[in-house]
Amino acid sequence: MPDGGLPVIARFEVRHRNYLAPDGSINRPLPAFASDADLLTALYRAMMLLRNFDRKAVALQRTGRLGTYAVSLGQEAVSVGIASAMRAEDVLLPSYRDNGALIWRGVRLEEILLFWGGDERGNRFSGPVEDFPFCVPVGSQAPHAAGVAYAFKLRKQPRVAVCMFGDGATSKGDVYEAMNFAGVHKLPVVFVATNNQWAISVPLRLQTGCETLAQKAIAAGFIGEQVDGSDVVAIRAAAEAAIAAAREGQGPRFIEAVTYRLGDHTTSDDALRYRSADEVQARWKEEPIARLRNYLVGNKMWSKAQEEQLAAECHERVEAAVERYLATEPRRPETMFDHLYADLPGVYAAQRRELEGEGDG
Questions:
Q1: Is 261 assigned a catalytic role?
Q2: Fold topology of 15-330
Q3: Res 358: pLDDT
Q4: Residue 360 has pLDDT above 80, yes or no
């Protein structure tokens, strides 16, 4: 025999979760919360607000009033669905594309614009005070998440760290090491990989040989689940289950949210250089907002009048946030030295005085 007749000592499996088809029809019995019309419409409203906000942020960048910006087009269900399953006392460790989660947890739109406008005051946001700031280096927040979860375990606090990153991050050592540590110590942490098929310009098949990203959790000793990332009901249900398990002391969980990035990686990218317009157009049929809208309308939970009102509300809220952002007084240059040292070294103190107009120059 090719395998020498060696015995099988272990088998593993990865489950896939999905409830809503792209047309809004139901694939299998829905979780209990899906009967709550108020919750489903809240999820829909949050995704619509995020899409409108992204559209305006891109316009601001194109007109020189915002820095490089990462849109969530096509991925709105992931960040909104995950955040909606968290408690206020849990801690979110987001990547740079998780604005939907921040907004759900109370971050103001103008604070997000401040950050992307190059003002670090945007990271001193209105959400839960212990939530982590935007993380731009890919995957570097994963070890922080393991550390936060370790602190929760030491303190015997029923809290969970939720760490979000993209598919490319799962090929980084930071993520593997964090998952391994979390698995060994059975930490209350949920890792969420948004598999949008493209690690910047690199397709999934060129950055990992794994059939699924979820199976990477198996090597670390815990459960990984693959979820339809364009189905906000599936994302919410998977997050609820994973967070509850982590909170109850069952150890870490891993969620692979399979979705598609319909926009460029950032406003500095041109995705047409590495993927075809036909591919993107085909994926529009799967996008999450139309999917949930179709379900809501089909079940008489949403109307044309509500849709028109929501569009007006989103426009008004986004425009008001932009006005507040643009009206924010820029930080004075000398504030770059704030929060660096308890006692500022002399060489830096002199530079600060010079910027304040007190130096000889």
A1: yes
A2: Rossmann fold (3.40.50)
A3: 64
A4: no
